Amino acid sequence: MSATNGETSQTLDRGLAVLWLLAAHSDGLTAGELAERLSTARAVVYRLLRTLESHRLIGRAGTRYVLGFGIAELASHLRPRLQATVLPILRQLSEQTNSTALLSVADGDQALVLLTEEPPQSTFHLALRQGARHPLDVGADGLAILAGRPAADADPQDVKAARRAGYALSVGALQTGAIGVAAPIAASDWATASIGVVQLGVALADPAVPELVMAAAAEAARRLSGEHSTESAVQA
């Protein structure tokens, strides 16, 4: 592990590395596998695992360690900030694309529609229910979240294509006669949220929609990371 700015705690660094490794392996890892990936003695890894387990940040499934419910509890405290930050971006995106814009977050293996914004001037548009859930690998919003994570051999082709393009596109995946476009909010190497739009139809009404969606997601990532650009692609 190497520091980027000043000194860091090696123990904390290793503990965070354990969490990232477990996040990238949904079926979990054994202590031996973690020690090998961290190039660290098993005794050190066991101490890290006991500490993380005591805080419910990890759990055990047999001999394998997985992320714990404490991670979800921490993430839940981020949601109010996520909503406040992203709402003006969604409003702008909805107006630009004349579509329903949405913020979705990963909740386990599901995508949760956390926030929606409907176009103010459109007579006909698709209304989405906040709080709706669906599998992460179904629909543009969930595919975009998966595409914003490290590549894995088991990734479906839709996720691989979205990772290459920078956005996910789905037609009729969640509702017949609807098309969705979404991009991951890349505030870290492990995406947990996406911004997207849904429209009625089977083809995009405007070919510029993917670029607008990606710009909105990039702006959300900048704001959530505490960065402010004077030349932002989306102005709230």
Please state how the strands of the largest beta sheet are arranged side by side.
Answer: 6-5-4-9-8-7
What's the multimeric state? Answer: single chain
Count of alpha/pi helices: 7
SSE topology string = HEHHEEHEEEHHEEEH
**Helix content class:** 40-55%
Overall mean pLDDT stands at 85
CATH topology of the largest domain: Beta-Lactamase
Give the total of beta strands: 9
Architecture per CATH nomenclature, i.e. the level-2 architecture of the largest domain: 2-Layer Sandwich
Can you tell me the CATH superfamily of the largest domain?
Answer: GAF domain
As a percent range, the share of strand residues is 15-25%
Uncertain runs = 1-5, 228-236
Describe the structure.
It is a single chain. This protein is of the alpha+beta class. It has two domains: 10-67, Orthogonal Bundle (Arc Repressor Mutant, subunit A), CATH 1.10.10; 72-224, 2-Layer Sandwich (Beta-Lactamase), CATH 3.30.450.40. 41% of the residues lie in helices and 20% in strands. The chain contains seven helices and nine strands. It has helices spanning 10-23, 31-38, 42-54, 69-97, 140-147, 157-165, 209-224; strands spanning 29-30, 58-61, 64-67, 100-107, 110-117, 133-135, 168-171, 178-184, 193-200. The strands form two sheets. It has a six-stranded antiparallel β-sheet, sandwiched between helices. A three-stranded antiparallel β-sheet has the order 1-3-2. Strand 4 and strand 5 (110-117) form a beta hairpin. The longest helix has 29 residues, at 69-97. It is elongated and about 65 Å long. It starts with 9 loop residues before the first helix and ends in a 12-residue tail after the last helix. 37% of the residues are buried.
